[in-house]
Amino acid sequence: MAMPPSRSWAELQHDLLVSIMTRAARPGHSSSRVSVHAALVGILEVAAKLAEGRIEAVLLPEFADEDHLLFLAERCPNLHYFSLPSTCMTYDQFCKAIGGLQSLKGMAVDESLINYDVLLHVHQCCPDFVELKVSALYVDEEMASVICNSLPRLKKLEIPSCDMSSAAIIRFLDCLEQLEHLDISGYETSAISSPVLEKASRLKVFLWNSKFELGEFMDCSNCGEHNINPQEPCKCMMEHKVMDWLAGPS
């Protein structure tokens, strides 16, 4: 019987990889936290070996911590993107991991890591860093200033499902001169004023109020109001992970 053609582990879809990680070591089952931690390290080690360290993106599960990120920095120094939902991360260990990821281009992190010194370290260690996604409940002008001052070369910024002040939005638009993509969708806000829309007109993509009603996609700020055909979903619905929004913040 002929063996099927082999494929590189590095070609595995990122969503599938994180699904494997989560199912292999899911908290709340019979495993203790220690065994869950060890199981994820084992999975990462196998993935790194099979891909010969060439993994470019990893979406870590909620129970991942700084040890897993440090492991990735050691075994996959060419990593371009990671998602780390953890809300319990020490600045020192995070910065240590970032120091080993000089090829990093983007990351998705919790608001607990939105600190000027931490993000400045990212800026200094990762010359190609241009993409940031933040999980946050509220963003004010002060937090916006931290992001702008520490990561001035951002081209893509995503802070979905978040209450955000008008001053914060304007700060992003005024200070991030290279910004091309801003996603603050998923939260109805009165902060979108005419000045905001005028300033945002220079962007290639601006998603700000993607509304849902009873599970139905009703409006998209990027494609236009009432421009949604259930049989032919809009580009944003397909490309910007609507289902992630529906699931809500982790």
From TrEMBL:
Organism: Zea mays
InterPro entries assigned to the protein according to its UniProt record, in alphabetical order: LRR_dom_sf
The protein, known as: F-box/LRR-repeat protein
